[in-house]
Amino acid sequence: MHSLLKNHDYQRQMRGKRPVISLASAKKFAERQGYCWVPNPETDIPFDAMLYRANDVIALRVRTSRNAPREFDLYEDFFREDFDILQALPLPLHIARELWVRFVWSRSFHRFRVFDEKLHLLTMIDREKPVFRRGIQKEKGSSLDSE
Fold first, then answer.
1. Neighbour-count burial for 9-18, b at 16+ CB within 10 Å, e otherwise
2. Among 4, 40, 111, 127, which has the minimal tally of Cβ within 10 Å of its Cβ?
3. What is the sign of the dihedral through the CA atoms of 114, 116, 117 and 118?
């Protein structure tokens, strides 16, 4: 096991207070994206949840941050503690590692994935609004289906 994960005092120091509100929001966001959310019951392994959907499995850390990286900041340097923890997780390599950050001045999550010793920002579409389904509009007497 990696030395980061062996040192329990270091884990508690780095983990800090769990972002309870952000975790609830992250769960809702993940479910809107079609992921199944499985919370991590093991407190010794510092990630918040496992997400899975079809062939995609993700070990996830969620955090709230007051500051955002500036234009020339490297994400893996700005979020160094989380990046180091994600890389040190004792999980198979085929399980992706992601960090979802919610800034205090924003309602959305910024999604970062570990690829080749770097954190990469992923773009995503939040499907919060329901998708238009033809049958629902027709039942309500909509003129959209007057074919």
1. eebeeeeeee
2. 127
3. negative
Cβ neighbours for 59, distance < 8 A, ≥ 6 positions apart: 47, 50, 86, 89, 91, 95, 96, 97, 98
The DSSP-derived string for 108-145 is SEEEEEEETTEEEEEP-----SPPP-HHHHHHTT-GGG
Residue 19 has pLDDT above 90, yes or no: no
Per-residue pLDDT tens over the stretch 33-58: 889 999 998 878 889 999 999 888 99
- Residue 87 near residue 68, CB atoms below 8 Å: no
Taken in order of first residue, the domains within the chain and their CATH numbers are 3-145 (3.40.1350.10)
At residue 77, what is the residue type?
Answer: D
Tokens of 7: 């040192």
Burial 49-71 (b: 16+ CB within 10 A, else e): bbbeeeeebbbbbbbbbeeebee
Largest CA distance in the chain: 67
